[in-house]
Amino acid sequence: MAEYPLAEVEDLYSYYSQMMDSVTDYAVIRLDGAGVVRSWHAGAQQLTEYAAEEIIGRPIAQFYTAEDVAIGLAESDLDAAAKAGRHQTEGWRVRKDGSHFWAAVVLTAVHDRDGASGYGMVVRDLSERREQALTLRSLEQMVNSIADYEVIRFDLDGFIRSWNQGAQTLTGYTADEVIGHQVSMFYTAEDARSDVLEREMAGAVRDGSLEVEGWRIRKDGTRFWANIVLSPIRDDEGDVAGYVKVARDLTERREQERLVQQQRDEILELSTPVIQVWDKVLILPLIGTLDSGRAARLTESLLERIAADQAEVVILDISGVPAIDSGVAQHLLETVAAARLMGTISILSGVRPDTAQSIVHLGIELGSLRSRTSLKDALQLALGLVRARNWTGDGARDGAGDVV
Amino acid sequence: MTTTTVVIGGESDLLRVRSTMREYARHAGLSLTATTKVVTAGSELTRNILRYATGGQGVASIEEAASGQRRGVRAVFADQGPGIADLDQAMCSGFSMAGGLGLGLPGSRRLVDEFAIDSAPGHGTRVAICQWDH
Amino acid sequence: MGPGMGPETLSDRVPIMRMGEDLLITLQGDLDDLTVESIERGVTSEVARMRACGALIDISGLDVVDSFVAGALGRLVQMIRLLGAEAAIVGIRPAVAITLVQLGVSLPGVTTALNAEQGMARLRRTRVNGNTGVRP
Q1: Which of the 8 DSSP states describes residue B93?
Q2: Confidence of residue A391 (pLDDT cuts 50, 70, 90)
Q3: For A305, what's the count of Cα atoms within 13 Å in the CB-facing half-sphere?
Q4: Residues B83/B30, Cβ–Cβ less than 8 Å
Q5: Spans of chain C below 70 pLDDT
Q6: DSSP string, A177-226
Q7: Which of A304, A342, A369 is the best mutation test for C, with the most CBs of C within 10 A?
């Protein structure tokens, strides 16, 4: 060991003490060869709550838990450091007030000028981190045990970071086969090629979470209808660090819904037959609410019937339609216009007082569309029109100047 | 999934676009009405290229589309023409054409399930349409 | 083509047939600019030459009618009327009718009918009512 001039040593020591005082996250403690505390500083006090005069001269076993003292852990830690020169360990330690903290400890065997051995000990409080680690581990175990839901994590770039039992059951893939792969690997080819994933991630960030349903592909290539909830994971700064995805297989439910809808549609179709009431006169009684899809189908079938039956007049009976909104009116007008292109005159029947009000208030222009309150009146008009058309006497011209 | 590309340069290409779209629509199982509508929209968009694009040059790419249980036809019409200065106006219903006025874009949009347009002066025009079987 | 009906075919795709005092023009396939032009020339010259009373434009053979074709039809009707004859468009298919309506094409003031027979009857009625131009 080199010899140092005394003045220099004192400077070094003063520098060293000041440095030590400024270290408050760690405890840096000097022990003598018997493991007795010989130095102290602010950081050590902060960590263990002992003041210098309370602890200098006490053995380090002071910091160990009763159970650990009973098994002689302090002695074996010192022994390990003496033999290997350095010993790193983690464990519970005890503060002055008896509270426990999880510590990371590094024991280093040192030699001072006299050759006597001693130890340097650096202690760090890992309680919070350990708590986090435990929470994380227990959460992961919890998540992994969920068998009927897929709960996985993927990062900002869409790479899968965690897997669970439910995900395996759902998709057929094991963790090894998916971790590190893109989450879009389960998408249909169509979706994978488009920017569906980016949009879903953006939507989740924007709204806090995103729920979607869509087709996904299993390992064996079969499809399933998934209900998916995406939530962003944020770090301490509040920035998005990744996403959690929870998914369920709803194929069966979707299939049932589809069947129910189909049956409903079929019933509705059956309940709105096009009726041929007279030669060249058709009636289409509209019943129930008309959504876009149904209205379009009704228009198609009516026009096809017009072509098939060579109808000259068609009566659209709306007495069974509860409310006329602009959507329904739009479809009606389109049907009338299309029928007109095919040479057929349309008459609206079953117009109620409130319907008349709605139509005018909606600002819908019916133009030359004829309209009657009752089906009977509409039929009378229809027959008159047909007769007039086939009569080569005084012709009738309708309001638009079109030849009847 | 195959894609058929039709280079648009003359009237005869219009016929090719229509017959190609018809074929894809048939293959996707579209109804007669849905087919008529999407082929008509394609015809409108092709005529736009012939009429307004620089040198009447453009490209139509037609392919089958699939999403879940649905099947359909997707077509993209692109040209390097002058581009549309006021897209909002061109897409406004009042500008729908009846044989001459405007570009017939609002009308075409009404005919199809999906419609997307990108256009700017000096950047040409790109219109993508898609029609599903249900 | 039978007696009284002359084959006035412009091209294989646009046959114009004479039926008594009227003309029956059948459009088929896909129409391009050139075809439309030749149709206009052919029809107008025939209407004038025959002093036809009416012209039926049968488009039942068209499975796609876009705004260009619809515009051409409208203009054709106007030309025929200017020549003193009445015109009607017949045979618009259901799918085409729906498409035209949604496209925003309505062909206002144009007589339409389901088929040539009905169209002919309409034209005759119009004639009887004296609603066309002067025709001795």
Answers
A1: G
A2: low
A3: 22
A4: no
A5: 1-14, 126-136
A6: HHTTSBGGGGB-HHHHHTTHHHHHHHHHHHHS-EEEEEEEE-TTS-EEEE
A7: A342
Q: CA–CA separation, B63 vs B75, rounded Å?
A: 6
Q: What is the pLDDT of residues B99-119, one digit of tens each?
A: 444 567 888 998 999 999 998
Q: Is A104 exposed, middle or buried (0-12, 13-18, 19+ CB in 10 A)?
A: middle
Amino acid at B36: T
C-beta atoms surrounding A381 within 10 Å: 18
User: How sure is the predictor about B78, in pLDDT bands with cuts at 50, 70 and 90?
Assistant: very high
Burial class (CB in 10 A: 0-12, 13-18, 19+), A106: middle
**What pLDDT digit, counting tens, does each position of A75-103 carry?**
999 999 988 888 989 899 999 998 888 88
Q: Given its phi and psi angles, is residue A363 left (phi above 0), alpha (psi -120 to 50 degrees) or beta?
A: left
Report d(CA A344, CA A346) in Å as an integer.
Answer: 6
**CATH class for domain C10-126?**
alpha beta
Nearest to A190 among B31, B33, B67 (CB): B67
| Burial (Cβ within 10 Å: 0-12, 13-18, ≥19) of residue C116 | buried
Q: Which residues in chain B have their CB less than 8 angstroms from residue A188's CB?
A: 66-68
Confidence of residue A336 (pLDDT cuts 50, 70, 90): very high
Cα within 13 Å of Cα(A153), Cβ side: 12
Please report residues of B whose CB lies closer than 8 A to that of A190.
65-67
Exposure string for A267-280, b = 16+ CB within 10 A, e = fewer: ebeeebebeeeeeb
Instruction: Give CA–CA dist C106/C99, Å, rounded.
Output: 11
Domains, chain B, with CATH or none: 3-132 (3.30.565.10)
For residues A283 and A269, give the distance between their C-alpha atoms in angstroms, rounded to a whole number: 14
Compute how many other C-beta atoms are within 10 angstroms of the C-beta atom of residue C3.
Answer: 5
Q: Which of A37-41, A134-138, C132-136 has the highest mean pLDDT?
A: A37-41
Tell me the pLDDT tens digit for each residue of C106-136: 788 889 999 888 888 888 776 666 544 443 4
As a whole number of angstroms, the distance between CA A39 and CA A6 comes to 20
State how far the Cα of C134 lies from the Cα of C136, in Å rounded to an integer.
7
Band (pLDDT 50/70/90 cuts) for residue B87 is confident
What is the predicted pLDDT for the residue at A389? Answer: 76
Helix (H) or strand (E) segment spanning residue B6: strand B3-8
Residue of C nearest to A296 (CA): C98
Cα angle A376-A387-A280, degrees, rounded to a multiple of 5:
70
Token pair for C93: 């298919």
Residue A332 binned pLDDT confidence (cut-offs 50, 70, 90): confident
Domain locations along chain C: 10-126
Count CB neighbours of A86 within 10 A: 12
Asked if B17 and B60 touch (Cβ cutoff 8 Å), the reply is yes
Rounded Cα gap, residues B31 and B37, in angstroms: 10
Interface probe for B, chosen from A190, A195, A330 (most Cβ of B below 10 Å), is: A190
